[in-house]
Fold:
Amino acid sequence: MPTSMPALASSVFAFAAAAALGVAGVAGVVAPSSARAEDAAAAGLDASAAWRSSQAAVGRRIGDFTLLDRRGEPVRLASYRGKPLLVSFIYTGCFQVCPANTRALHDAVRTLQKQYGEHRFNVVSIGFDQPADTPRAMKAFAAQHGLGLPDWDFLSPPAAIVAALTAEFGFRAQATPSGFDHVLQLSVVDGAGRLVHQFYGDRPASAALADVMQRLFDGTPLPEPSPLAALIDRVKLLCTYYDPVTGATRVDYSLAIEMAGGATFALAMLLYMLNEWRLRRRTRGGR
Structure:
């Protein structure tokens, strides 16, 4: 039976997406604390496993962990329920990626607070490097980088719960001689305590973050991510790294270039198969 054009196009798109995701799974960096992709790979951080773990957390109801705030007072994660919550993981010994990423989040949160008003949602930054990320260290980190927006807490989990807590959010980190290689991930938790979305990269897209927050305020379900959106997210997770020359995080476009080459090949295949399909129809019609 001859293949229909919709089925043909679908097959080629699936091939292209699978090829692109396959490339992404083996050639990238997951927010290294020091340098390039080779360093992260050498440190043993499994980028594909990190992606799967992060995505598996979406839809999960977060448990009620108890952490310490900057004053050393216990804070239950359940106490944030009733409002949307943004959660990021940092370590205070990081001098490049975590400060830059947190300042970018600070700018995004400030924009959201201007747009929707204060006290509509909460933000927490959690220090995962225990016992180093004490309440005092978290307080110093926030003060040093001018992170003083309302409804934003900096929390220290007891060392005994770090593994369970990070696993709950699908967050992964790998110790290295210079610190940690870790996922640059911003988790969005709804008012019921369910993790509903993960943002990746050195800075969340303001428009996309605002759209998710608006839906949570309105009680509107979040749409299922498209294959293209999932692919872009995976590229962000895999390709962001610290540039020691500029002192900032940026995207390694080499993977994007490889993927563009793959897409070009897929398009050429689609055009070839389209031409073959037309020739077959013309031949059958001339009989």
Residues 85 and 98 are 19 Å apart (CA to CA). The domain at 44-225 is CATH 3.40.30.10 (Glutaredoxin). The two ends are 17 Å apart (CA to CA).
